[in-house]
Amino acid sequence: MRLVPKEIESLWTLFTAPAVWAAHFLLCYVGAAVYCAKRSSWGFGFEWVRVGIGVATLLALTMILVSAWLAWRQWGFGAQDPPHDRPTGHDRRSFQGLATLLLSGLSFVAVIYTAMPALVIAECNP
Amino acid sequence: MSAADMHEDNTRKAQEERLRAAWMAPRGWRYFTAVNNTRVGLWYIVTAFTFMLFAGVLALLMRVQLAVPNNSFLSADFFNQTFTLHGTVMMFLFAVPIFEAVAITVLPQMLGARDLPFPRLSAFGYWSFALGGVFVCGSIFFGAAPDTGWFMYPPLATDPEYSGIGADIWLLGLSFIEVASIAAAVELIVGFLKCRPPGMRINLTPLYGWYVLVVAGMILFAFPPLIAGDILFELERMFDWPFFDPERGGDPLLWQHLFWIFGHPEVYIIFLPAIALLAMIVPTFAQHPIVGYSWIVLAAVGTGFLSFGLWVHHMFTTGLPSISLGFFSAASEAVAIPTGVQIFVFLATLLAGRVVFSVPMLFAAGALAIFVIGGLTGVMVALAPFDWQAHDTYFVVAHLHYTLIGGMLFPTFAGLYYFYPVMRGRMLSARLGKTGFWLMFVGFNVAFFPMHIAGLRGMPRRVFTYPDEIGFNVLNLVSTIGAFVFASGVLVVIWAIARPKRNEPYAGRNPWNAGTLEWLIEMPGEDWGVRSVPIIESRYPLWDQKNLMRDVDAGRFYLADAAEGRRETLVTSVLDGDPVQCLRLPGPAYVTILAAFSLGGVFIFLTYHWWIAALVSGAICAVCILYWLWTGTAEIPEKREKNVGLGLTLPLYVSGPRSVGWWAMFITMVGDGTALASLIFGYFFYWTVHRGFIAAAAGPGAFWPIVGIALFAATWGAMLGALAANTRGSASGQRLLLILSLLMAVLGSLAGLAGPWTHAMTPSSHAYPAIVWTLVIWVAVHGAVGAVMQGYCLARSLAGRLTRDHDIDLRNVVLYWHFMLVSAVLTFVVVGLFPLAL
Q: Which residues pair with residue B583 across a beta bridge?
């Protein structure tokens, strides 16, 4: 059995990395909001929320890297340059690979943006 | 001419006659029954522009009032109505519908399709929009317009004493229009994915199509939260269910969340389609393919996602935890990346090509200049500390107008000048266009730039006047002068469009020398759209494929004939554009108009609490829709397959995931599921924010919700069984299981309602029983709709319209029940089992 499946790319894989960004964003926002609203009934401090955000961020970045690697492979590891505008299945797959790779890059940066407030904010306030 | 040539010529003429007859849009007194995308799109554009001019007049009234201090041109009350209606109309009746209007008009042409897959749905959407728009706009003539701002914040807007009937008109009128938007989204997604010409793989599609896909997808996730919010809001106003009343466990902030989960993506729903027009215009006038096609796809998809992480930046001053503000501030900054990518791609394309200067290009350049300023102030207000200073001042007014007018109005005018020949066969006056542009560009900046300064000096938005000698006078006078210059520019362009042009010649074919398929159109265009559906091998086929126009005109490609006198278009596969079906499309109909007007009746009568009239109107609407489905969909063709030309034979009837109807159901249910998720978000929002929320009143218990889950699961199983029986060819087994599942669906709905009923939960007493009732009613109504669908399938089966080989209806209803099962389980677990876990 292969560790990485051979061909899993479809139209939907284009959206993998942004979907990871969305899930990470929601998790951070909902987690922090619920904690801050109910902090008195829970027996741990805000630093654990920050640790949680850190762990979630590492997980999300790893998933985006996997998606990026798959996209890079679909793009043929950059063997051919864009624009990928010939009417062939090969160019169609290369285009999908490149677009997915670019989206992975954007999502990677956006996940780091999301995590940054947790570096500097140390309490719920209010 | 040889005998063979003459024969070919005669054949071609006969084909054209048949095509023309099949596609002819009705004339005379049946004019408005047309469903052709060219005609519906035109009505849509004209109607949206009319609303825009109306809202523009409202803006001028406001500017006159604000021109001098202590003015009494408008009363405070009327001023409130004016700014509320101005914002509402511009957003809901112009900016979003103009996207749908332009897309319905040009997308099929760009894809070399004869029409979109559901022409009657487009017409239905248009009539809903037109009726709802007239209703909302008309209210101001009776002094009954909404007057609490275009985002309707409670508690001001929930209190009937303060806000009058205007708030109901806003809520119900706009809910009705949102139906039209979702209809358009379904139509456009399926159109883009399934109705491309053969050979147009996903890497060759026009960029406009990518934007349409992203924006329509965003509508599916952005509009349902607003619909959910509208439902809660109207339940509070009509029946005193206290969703936003803090004294009875409600919370006004929930509305702000639901509104802005819609409201911020909406800004991008408005902006992206306009940028999409630039993505078509810029390559044409650079005479060069777009540089960085994949980067545009990155930008469109990336913006689509990130725009959902911005909504709280409208709520920075509501006292949320600082870390929440941080998350949303970060996403608001991140979205500048893909937005900037698009602008750089356009600049690179212009640098790589040889730019032809023209009116569309002028508007495009003006758009970029204005939008960049709006984007920069956007980066400023995305920073929470800056926003605390600028919030609710004229700085925000200036910012939002720079983004919307630069990001939407100017590109739309560019698109109008560019695509006018596609729509009407003639060019617009370049002289008037240039005059109009400069008046608009200068007037806009004169009007709106001073507002930045007024805002920083502390002028709050929405004040109907201001005192003398606090430093606002000159700035406001300049803004008013600028507004009138701007308006005069708009009028010049409107005149260029509206003035009679009967004596002017038609434009030549492809007058801008563009590369994409919409320019195949003849001048003036025929109702059939494209003479034959070509095979595509390039992103710019008119530039790269030799003799394409000649061969299309000669009918050398697919569907050059309408042998059976029917409207037909090709359906292709999503990724590679392989032909899979010859789809027959319905023609003109009254029933769509009647369905839209009776549905409008429901919303309008509810505004005035005319319950019986609303009920009757709803019944008429249901009958219309059933009649429309029965006579116009899932038609069994007279033969299995059809030769579509070039030796290709395609099936006329396909069902399941290969059919367009299945995709439409899937997409609709995604939107529907988002609305339910928004209601469930409301439940957990209360639980998070209000201590002891669930203990505040008796709950629905666990028994009835569990019974509900069991019954809906059994219904779902029976539907799977019915489909299996039908596939085996056992009509009687299929019918028996349909009857069984129909009964269980009804019982499941009743069991859901029994939970709160048997525990005497009073919805007006507290927000907890109110939200529980809302959730179970949501499921019960969906169960009832599902039961109607089951009954419909049964009737179709008995009438011989649903058979083993013709099972579109059954497969679509089974798909509905997949979603229904998830909805029911989720809801009953939340209301019945979640309280036990606490």
A: B569
